[in-house]
Design brief:
Blueprint lengths: L4 E5 L3 H12 L3 E6 L10 E4 L1 H9 L3 H7 E4 L1 E6 L4 E7 L11 E5 H14 L3 E4 L3 E6 L4 E5 L4 E4 L1 E4 L6 H6 L7 E13 L7 E5 L3 E6 L4 E9 L11 H9 L8 H4 L9 E9 L6 E2 L2 E3 L2 H4 L8 H18 L3 H31 L7 H12 L4
Parallel strand pairs: 1-2, 1-12, 2-8, 5-14, 12-19
Antiparallel strand pairs: 3-7, 4-7, 5-6, 9-10, 10-11, 13-16, 13-17, 14-15, 15-16, 18-19
């Protein structure tokens, strides 16, 4: 293993998981993160069975579950009446003593991963970006925004949907495009009887996800015009108005509690996928949203980024040759990423009436089967 130090650009979920996995393989790792505060917005995230397995694989599952709420079942309700259509459980991939899925606050997930990466000796520098890359085939000389520079054996771009690394490597690659939908999230008190995820399909596309003993979050997916801008002031009323579009009775009491503008987190859904090209150039490689940003319709965006990180570390540990390691990494990831990325977009288009109808039950079953397989 002759990679020298690895630079990871981006200190989010994918970048931190990559740092942990690479340190466990014996690599020296630096992370740079653009945000000087290393901040994360405070709503929740759904983590499915493959993520629970991955958290176990990198040695953080017990710490993770002290900050999360595990659950095994998801119930889907349909129509304005909120009629239960199906309830399904997913396999416990980390073993019978652990839950199948979990809900967790994003800052808590960031803390678990960040603390682990630091404890393993990862060097983290905040408030930095890359200003120049020179890959001479034997290594990569990197210049940073503070004027400093260093040489690395490889550079990993884990810098999100608007990835600077993607732009640098592939200036002609597709740009992120708006799908036509927004996702809205808001934290609420968790009722005692919410022991799993509840999804409501119909005019009001929404769901409830447990996060802690005290908290859950409500999510809402809406169709919005391109270019819409949401002011923070009035955002709670805006979310309530959208959630009031023929809501099922189970949601009405919770919609009324969306009152604090500062607690609303809403964003347009944008996607980009380098499906038909390499995910690397020379000694620089991409992972997570930098190469395959998807929508939350199958709740696997973070999951496939986390899996990317584990597979990339494994392949780098197997070969000193970047071309071999990075090609093997992409080859192993393509089937799963294709399924999640393309079908998540497909479900959103079906919801907007601009694509073929999507059988969500079948797609969920296919997703569970595929993501339960070893990575």
């Amino acid at each position: 293993m002759n990679w020298e130090t690895i630079l990871i650009v981006g200190g989010g979920i994918g970048g931190l998981t990559a740092a942990i996995a690479m340190r466990r393989q014996g690599f020296a790792v630096d992370i740079i993160e653009r945000d000087p505060d290393w901040s994360v917005y405070g709503v929740g995230i759904t983590q499915q069975m493959n993520v629970i397995r991955a958290m176990n694989d990198i040695g953080v599952l017990d710490d993770y579950l002290t900050m999360a709420t595990g659950y095994d079942s998801t119930t889907i309700f349909v129509g304005p009446e909120g009629i239960e259509k199906t309830k399904f459980e997913t396999p416990k991939l980390a073993g019978p003593n652990y839950p199948s899925n979990a809900g967790i606050r994003r800052p808590h997930l960031q803390k678990v991963l960040g603390d682990k990466a630091l404890s393993l000796g990862t060097n983290v520098r905040l408030g930095l970006t890359v200003t120049a890359l020179n890959d001479d085939g034997a290594g990569v000389d990197v210049t940073f925004s503070d004027g400093s520079s260093a040489r690395y054996g490889a550079v990993v771009g884990a810098d999100g949907v608007f990835s600077q690394m993607r732009e640098t490597l592939f200036p002609d690659a597709p740009q992120p495009r708006y799908t036509g939908q927004w996702v809205w999230r808001y934290n609420l008190p968790r009722p005692a009887d919410l022991d799993g995820m509840k999804v409501f399909a119909g005019p009001c596309n929404a769901g409830l996800v447990p996060m802690t003993d005290e908290l859950m979050y409500i999510f809402l997916v809406t169709e919005e015009p391109d270019g819409m801008f949401l002011e923070q002031e009035g955002s709670a009323a805006a979310m309530r108005a959208r959630a009031s579009k023929m809501p099922p009775p189970q949601l009405i009491p919770w919609i009324a509690q969306i009152k604090d503008d500062s607690e609303v987190v809403a964003r347009p859904l944008k996607v980009v996928y380098l499906q038909d090209q390499d995910w690397h150039k020379g000694r620089v490689v991409l992972l997570g949203d930098a190469v395959h940003t998807t929508t939350p319709h199958l709740a696997q965006g973070a999951g496939i980024a986390i899996e990317d990180a584990l597979v990339l570390a494994q392949e780098m540990a197997c070969s000193d040759a970047p071309e071999i390691a990075f090609k093997a990494y992409r080859d192993r990831r393509l089937e799963r990423v294709d399924h999640i990325t393309l079908n998540s977009i497909r479900i959103g288009e079906a919801q907007m009436g601009i694509g073929e109808p999507a059988d969500i039950e079948t797609l969920n079953a296919q997703t569970i089967q595929l993501m339960s397989q070893p990575i």
